[in-house]
Amino acid sequence: MTHSAVATDSLTAALDGLVDRVPGAEVAVVLSPDGLLLGRSRHVADQLAEHLASLVSGLYALGQAAGRVCLAGGLRQVVVQMSRSFVFVATTRGGAILTVRMGGDADVGDMAYEVALFAAQAERALPVYLEARTVMGGTSGAHHWRP
What we know:
The chain is of the alpha+beta class.
């Protein structure tokens, strides 16, 4: 069974508010950078929370790797568009990962705006994660794509 590590009323209210404000938004969860569930909106059952945490952890890792390989900087967001829905993944200022599942006719631009508002509202209820930085000396054998 999945339990939220940070189960505050203010975080739950912020996630519910996000889902309520954005047309097409269905559910929202917040994870730590290592995939630990921190909070969820209403109507997110334990099994769905576990599935989203697993999915988002993989997407987040893939996005981080793409940023490193492409020398593009830190990950800000990942948007997966399917035939009937979107999964929107974005990092907050403190390093937590916000995920929202939206219907296929939702406006991703509206969601990006609302994520900025969410980060400001939920900042007090979320821990701050320090980004681990690794300084690599020499050649690692990885090939970097450059435009």
